[in-house]
Amino acid sequence: MKLVFIGPPGIGKGTCAKALSQKYGIPHISTGDIFREEIAKGTELGLKVKQYVEKGLLVPDEIVIEVVKKVLQSPMCSKGFILDGFPRTLRQAEELEKIAKIDVAFLFNASVDVIIERVSGRLVCPKCGAIYNIKWRPPKKPGICDVCGTPLIRRKDDEPEVVRERYRIYEQTFAPIIEYYRRKGILVEVDAARDSSLIVADIERILAEKGLITKAL
Ligand code: AMP
Asked: Which residues, 6 or more positions from 197, have their beta carbon under 8 angstroms from its beta carbon?
């Protein structure tokens, strides 16, 4: 089950990827998360990519491709994977094809206004990364992470002007990638303006139809 998830920041694809990853035992690979972790740990890779990530610029293809290649060829990806945030350029998409045959590219669709509404209630745990929503998925104790007890924070990225700008950049960056997978006939669009459990159920139905899972568990 080799999947690519495409969608604007804040659309909830990370939440769906985590749910599917746990249920089917395949890793959720977010290149953004990998870079943020490496930067936080101060590794050689972290130092190399810091200048790009902090400015919101694309990390050069050679670096990203090498990282993804290493991860996808490791034993943890033997049953498949969910890629999130990669590919972002046509060259990355072409290189990915040499490493693995992608089964489905899921495109998460929702308008920018839906995303703004969704992220306005979002709280994240700065320690373990757990994500909550005041409306749909509140923590048991207000403002405190259920998993590790750390006080939750609102990300700067979740402010409406920042969301609008990131949406615009997303549309520009991913248009050729969406077109690439559409032409290959493996792009599947999902209505992401709904609760993540419904989106996950839709994805499972499609995976079952394609014979990638035996049935929705
Ligand atoms: P994300 O969390 O996916 O928005 O990624 C955060 C940042 O990591 C991006 O703004 C880029 O600087 C970098 N990044 C993540 N994935 C890629 C990629 N596939 N190609 C180039 N840069 C990337």
From this structure: 19
